[in-house]
Predict the structure.
Amino acid sequence: MEKLLYIDSCIRREASRSRQAADYLMKKMEASGKYEIETLCLMDEPLHYLGGDFFLQRERLLAEGRRDHRRFDYAHQFARADVIVIAAPFWDLGFPALLKTYIENISVDGITFYADTEGCHGMSQGRQLIFVTTRGGYYENTPLEMGSLYMEALSVFFGIDQYKCFFAEGLDIEGSDQKMLMQNLFDQIDEFAADWT
Ligand SMILES: Cc1cc2nc3c(=O)[nH]c(=O)nc-3n(C[C@H](O)[C@H](O)[C@H](O)COP(=O)(O)O)c2cc1C
């Protein structure tokens, strides 16, 4: 079975439309019986951004080659997964700071990527990252959309070679048909699920 890590950073929890779409996807993945699923709800994790002593400790541990320290557990867990599903709303042209804090914690030289004289390289191949998001306005194919764009870049950075984004947008535009926009998102998931599962 492939290992699937589902990372939930939908701050509004049950009320979140991104979360509803991601849960819909996860039900399909689960029903396929192909995946061993682990769920990480970032809102319930004791995550810290890199700063002060927490930052210095990281530098020290890496200099000593101590990648088995428990603060790197998130990075090891991420590195072990064959498929990663990340759910997050579109906030401030990207995604919530909580998710960026998690990314700071998993971006560890020697676990999720490595650096040499030529630069940084991903640690793995043959993996997949799926990003599920919903946006208030319309941003597709504009330079303002930096949520999915960032996730795609992160995939390249970590050596994850398949990237897919499921999104609905325009949800908060006055007069928008939210139900129809969300249904389109569920339809997108249905369409691709057959291939994955
Ligand atoms: C703090 C915050 C920041 C947001 N920033 C944007 C934004 O930059 N552009 C936009 O179109 N919508 C923005 N929105 C609206 C959300 O993208 C939209 O409501 C989305 O569907 C929320 O997802 P959720 O239902 O999963 O929480 C923002 C909402 C919040 C609460």
Remarks:
- Residues 178-196 form the longest helix (19 residues).
- Strands lie at 2-8, 35-41, 83-87, 113-116, 119-122, 128-134, 162-168.
- The pocket of flavin mononucleotide is lined by residues 10, 12, 16-19, 89-93, 134-137, 171-172 (CB under 6 Å).
- The chain is about 40% helix and 20% strand.
